[in-house]
Amino acid sequence: MPKKKKFNDLPFAYHQEIELEISTLTNRGVGLGRVQLPGSPSGWVVMAPFTLPGEKVRVRVFRNHKNYSEADPVAILSPSPDRVAPLCPIFGACGGCQYQHLTYAEQLSWKRRQVAELLEHMAGVTFPVEPVVGSPSQFGYRSKITPHFEVSRDSGPDPFPIGFLRQGTRHDIVDVPRCEIATDGINARLAGLRTSVRLKAAEGAYPRGATLLLREAGGAVATDYDATITEEVGPPVGLKLRFLARDFFQNNPFILPEFVAYVRRQASAGGAGFLVDAYCGSGLFALGAAGAFERVAGVEISATSVAFARENAAANGIGNAIFLAGDASAIFAGLDFPPAETAVVVDPPRRGCDETFLRQLFAFGPRTVVYVSCDPATQMRDLRLFLDAGYQLERVQPFDLFPQTRHLECVITLRKNASVTPGESPAGIGR
Predict the structure, then answer these.
(1) Which of the following is catalytic: 117, 409, 410, 424?
(2) Do 1-83 and 109-137+228-416 come out as alike in CATH topology?
């Protein structure tokens, strides 16, 4: 058995309790304060989850790093006026939410500030960030959850945890009989699914454990990864989209119409007549924006998603959109759209755009790029490359698709500087 790593007791002993004034929140939703120590003129950083700016707290240190410490809150000595009672009884134990103890108005305020800080630190840009567009529903909004569980040989129908990772751990699961940010339909189905899983576990159906899926669309809740479901995106978009329950699709249907309509307005505002949706999935942005363009092309490496996108175009009566199963190494191959009259919507995975895609995008050189991201940190990292490639930042608009959590979507709009030669690659992008 490997030897347990010795605790680093500098500058604080293990489980030493200290008093701390919280000055800010990190982009992970953790309170941050500073303690004056010898040799640390600006103060030693201590981070404590579930604490808020302006609060005086007592915390218990559990880890010292090279330049900061981590601690658990023990007592809130002087609470923030923005502190509220969390709705969920397991808030603080479950790692799914970070902000249930903070008023919603302040959640939006801090998320806006964190986007501005990422702009400055990751992209080297000072630029005004628009107020965050809030979700019409702050609880009961999430249309997909994926609870986990582990079983052992002696697991039976008696309760074992079925839920999400415990706060601050990588493997420990906290039991979640009800998720307050999930839809009512999902919570109604969750109770029966949990009972079924435990009965099946007693019969040996799960050698180790599993990840469950509950996804609501159109008033029905699917638990089969391969089920076909239909999501309706209301006015002003007005779409019905079919896709597999396991496929990627935005998980807050309440804000989705406004979100998609904004992307459409930004893509068409520069006067482009053509649109490319570079990570089109089942066609959400491509079909949602088709009415504002002469021609639209969706590109996706998943052949099954492309098949759904084509079906969705036909079902919604949209005749000016085509969908291509593009090879990752030739995303724009075969497109006859003039780059100077084309807008591109980019909605990559959380890790951001990869080098191969960016090289192709910059070589194509579209007039407008609307970059949608669920991780502003990787988005701002990529933004630096767009700026180096001759694009100008025009607008930064966050959307809160994930109330009560540290997560958000951010949409940035970029226009190409006409003086830049098409095909040039910025520093950091290989040829």
Answers:
(1) 409
(2) no
Residue 179: active-site member: no
313 neighbors 340 (Cβ within 8 angstroms): no
160-189, pLDDT tens digit by residue? 999 999 998 989 999 999 999 999 999 999
CATH architecture label of 109-137+228-416: 3-Layer(aba) Sandwich (3.40)
CA distance 121 to 217: 39
Please give the model's pTM, rounded to 2 decimal places. Answer: 0.92
Domain boundaries, the chain: 1-83, 109-137+228-416, 147-212
Told to judge if 409 belongs to the known catalytic residues of this protein, a careful annotator would answer yes
Q: CA dist 194 to 48, 94, 145, Å?
A: 33, 17, 13
Per the DSSP assignment, residues forming a β-bridge with 300 are: 325
* Spatial CA neighbour of 229 closest among 241, 237, 212, 213: 241
**CB-based contact 315:287 (threshold 8 Å):** no
Domain 1-83 is in which class? Answer: mainly beta
Q: Which of 94, 97, 374, 410 is catalytic?
A: 374
114-125 per-position pLDDT tens digit: 999 999 999 999
